[in-house]
Design goal:
Blueprint: H1 28-37, E1 44-45, H2 46-53, H3 57-70, E2 73-78, E3 83-87, H4 89-94
Antiparallel strand pairs: 1-3, 2-3
Length: 95
């Protein structure tokens, strides 16, 4: 009877990610930072804006849509899952 009963396998709890507490409404300071910093970024995604401004994903999507309508950023790729924007360099050359 080789093998016998060994120790029972201990199941790990799994990796737990820190829960983030992002804001669902923008403060005046965050709004100003959005208009100052985001149009200068080379690669603009929803997740990049969420990390930078500590805001909710839905709020970041809406903010990027508003910046696009104002002409401050332009879309590179728009798919169902991901939206990628870049700064509007054509606007800088016209000035």
């Amino acid at each position: 009877m080789a093998g016998g009963k060994g120790k029972k396998k201990k199941w790990s709890k799994g990796k737990s990610r820190d829960q983030v507490d992002n804001k669902v409404l923008m403060t005046k300071e965050q709004h100003d930072r959005l208009h100052a910093e985001v149009p200068k970024m080379k690669l603009i995604t929803v997740s990049a804006v969420v990390e930078k401004l500590k805001i909710n994903g839905g709020l970041a999507r809406r903010a990027l849509r508003d910046l696009e309508e104002e002409g401050k950023i332009r879309p590179v790729l728009i798919s169902r899952a991901q939206r990628i924007y870049t700064r509007n360099v054509a606007e800088d050359n016209e000035d």
